[in-house]
């Protein structure tokens, strides 16, 4: 494998062509950061160096490639530690390059030398952390093989040798002897460097030097105390003195440093590029691995989703749960099965407040997004088709209030979503149209559902509008006659005594049962009220 080809190596894309296709937006998932924030994914995967949405792909080949990479990261936990050590070193290289001005001065050459030291350190970190292991992913097989070949190469040995030679020469500089000519008024007229020395000068005075009567190896003891550089000097004086020192050192080392610069250009600049190109990928890999590890530590299942063609429009998750919730609670999380099939491409999800409707709606979106990042999904098992876009509508604000301004905003946003979706999109609506009364809300929701079903995309419409569920049969009849997708209903269940079970079942909703359970919980049934009245009357 040539260095030139390896500069296009990626841990996230199996080939240069797949990477180009992604960043040409051919295979990039249509999802924005706001949507990922609504789903809770930005809290789970907080990237500092690039938007998370940049990595969402629709290409099954890319997803499979990443799944293998993440499998290796989970199997070899020390790889994550290796990448954690490597990232700060690469940031130092980037900072050095940013500060370089290529002026030809010694300071720039020393920066170049530091870059080579950092480059060698990077390779050593990778060699120690990656090589000598067996990997299942093509990505880590290639990377570890390349690093092993590099460390064993003549190029790398020569680079280390040349670096050691120059490092020894430069690092041995401890002081400079300066000669200063004075004018008739004893003012400095001009100055030059007499020597560059391997020892530091020491403070002293003339009397001490005479009393010791030992002048051997005493060339570095001053006849007065050393004064910190710049003390009682103006900025102009300090600058002038620095320029004099630098000019002298540049003159002494000019030839060897020119030679060194050629070494830097020949050996390092191109070879460090492949590591710097991987830097943004390292962050996603480390954060993604840490997320999956955290879920496993808490006793939660994660699984490699089976990716099937987009045309199948599949989403079949057994034991699905919301990872954001799972990481925040100590008790075992309630799992649910969620399946889109020939009888339901669109779901209307109803149930009591705080009964798990929002949690499962987000869980669906998170599983889809994680799958299209190449990560494992929070479920016992899953079969998923890539979608071309994820769209959410999670209104914020008060509960059921008549607010025409907010209703208009909701309708406008829903209109934007409907204008953007295709039959291969995923739409998640959570308590949409809650800003209006139930009659208006149900009417508009029925129209929106009809449009989504007509498009044929996958959708969950989580709602408190129980009246809407009663309209499903008529909506289905209307849409199916025009070739639209089927709509079905999901219900967030209730346990005994009005408690939430957080179990989602595929059933017809019964709004009265929720009201009855809640009424019984708080003693507000007619029978209980009458009983209390009689008791109070006695």
Shape: elongated
CATH topology of the largest domain: Rossmann fold
Q: Structural class of the secondary structure composition?
A: alpha/beta
Q: Beta fraction of the residues? A: 5-15%
CATH architecture of the largest domain: 3-Layer(aba) Sandwich
Count of structural domains = 2
Strand tally: 12
- CATH homologous superfamily heading of the largest domain: P-loop containing nucleotide triphosphate hydrolases
| Helix count from the secondary structure assignment | 20
CATH class of the largest domain: Alpha Beta
Could you characterize what this model shows?
By secondary structure, the protein is of the alpha/beta class. It has 2 domains: 3-171 and 267-287, no CATH class; 300-537, 3-Layer(aba) Sandwich (Rossmann fold), CATH 3.40.50.300. Helix content is 52%, strand content 13%. The protein contains 20 helices and 12 strands. It has helices spanning 3-6, 16-23, 33-39, 41-44, 60-75, 77-99, 106-130, 138-151, 154-171, 206-212, 235-267, 269-297, 323-326, 357-373, 404-420, 438-455, 466-469, 472-480, 511-521, 526-537; strands spanning 175-182, 188-197, 306-307, 315-320, 336-340, 346-350, 381-384, 390-393, 426-430, 458-462, 487-494, 500-505. The strands form 3 sheets. The chain has a 6-stranded mixed β-sheet with strand order 8-9-10-6-11-12, sandwiched between helices. Helix 5 (60-75) crosses helix 12. The longest helix is centred in the middle third of the chain and has 33 residues, at 235-267. 34% of the residues are buried. The model is unreliable at 397-404 (pLDDT under 50).
């Amino acid at each position: 494998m040539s260095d030139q080809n390896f500069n296009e190596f990626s841990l996230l894309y199996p080939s240069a062509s797949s990477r180009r296709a992604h960043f040409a937006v051919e295979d990039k998932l249509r999802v924005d950061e706001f949507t990922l924030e609504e789903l809770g994914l930005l809290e789970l995967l907080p990237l500092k160096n690039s938007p998370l949405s940049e990595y969402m792909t629709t290409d099954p080949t890319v997803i499979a490639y990443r799944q293998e990479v993440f499998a290796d990261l989970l199997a070899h936990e020390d790889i994550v530690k290796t990448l954690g050590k490597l990232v700060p070193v690469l940031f130092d290289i980037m900072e050095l390059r940013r500060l370089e001005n290529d002026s030809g001065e010694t300071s720039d050459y020393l920066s170049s030398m530091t870059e080579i030291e950092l480059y060698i350190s990077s390779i050593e970190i990778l060699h120690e952390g990656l090589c000598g292991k067996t990997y299942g992913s093509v990505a880590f097989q290639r990377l570890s093989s390349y690093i092993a070949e590099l460390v064993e190469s003549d190029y790398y040995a020569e680079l280390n040798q040349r670096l050691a030679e120059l490092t020894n020469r430069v690092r041995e500089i401890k002081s400079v002897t300066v000669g200063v000519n004075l004018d008739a008024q004893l003012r400095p007229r001009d100055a030059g460097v007499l020597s560059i020395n391997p020892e530091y000068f020491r403070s002293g005075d003339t009397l001490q030097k005479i009393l010791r009567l030992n002048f051997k190896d005493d060339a570095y003891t001053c006849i007065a105390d050393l004064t910190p550089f710049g003390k009682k000097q103006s900025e102009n004086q300090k600058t002038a003195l620095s320029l004099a020192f630098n000019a002298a050192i540049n003159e002494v080392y000019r030839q060897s440093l020119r030679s060194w610069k050629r070494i830097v250009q020949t050996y390092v600049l191109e070879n460090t590029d492949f590591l710097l190109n991987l830097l943004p990928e390292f962050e996603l890999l480390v954060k993604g691995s840490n997320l999956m590890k955290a879920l496993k530590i808490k006793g939660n299942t994660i699984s490699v989703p089976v990716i099937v063609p987009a045309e199948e429009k599949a989403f079949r998750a057994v034991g699905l749960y919301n990872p954001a919730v799972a990481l925040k609670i100590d008790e075992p999380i309630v799992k649910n099965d969620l399946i889109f099939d020939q009888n339901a491409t669109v779901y209307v999800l109803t149930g009591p407040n705080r009964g798990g409707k929002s949690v499962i709606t987000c869980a669906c979106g998170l599983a889809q997004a994680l799958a299209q990042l190449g990560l494992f999904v929070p479920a016992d098992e899953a079969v998923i088709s890539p979608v071309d876009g994820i769209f959410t509508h999670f209104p914020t604000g008060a509960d059921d209030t008549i607010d025409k301004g907010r209703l208009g905003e909701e309708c406008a946003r829903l209109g934007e979503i409907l204008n953007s979706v295709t039959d291969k999109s995923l739409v998640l609506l959570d308590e949409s149209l809650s800003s209006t009364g139930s009659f208006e809300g149900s009417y508009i929701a029925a129209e929106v559902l009809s449009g989504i079903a007509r498009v044929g995309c996958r959708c969950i419409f989580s709602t408190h509008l129980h009246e809407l569920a009663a309209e499903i049969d008529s909506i289905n009849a209307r849409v199916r006659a025009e070739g639209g997708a089927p709509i079905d209903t999901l219900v967030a269940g209730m346990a005994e005594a009005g408690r939430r079970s957080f179990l989602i079942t595929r059933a017809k909703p019964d709004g009265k049962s929720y009201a009855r359970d809640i009424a019984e919980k708080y003693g507000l049934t007619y029978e209980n009220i009458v009983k209390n009245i009689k008791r109070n009357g006695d």
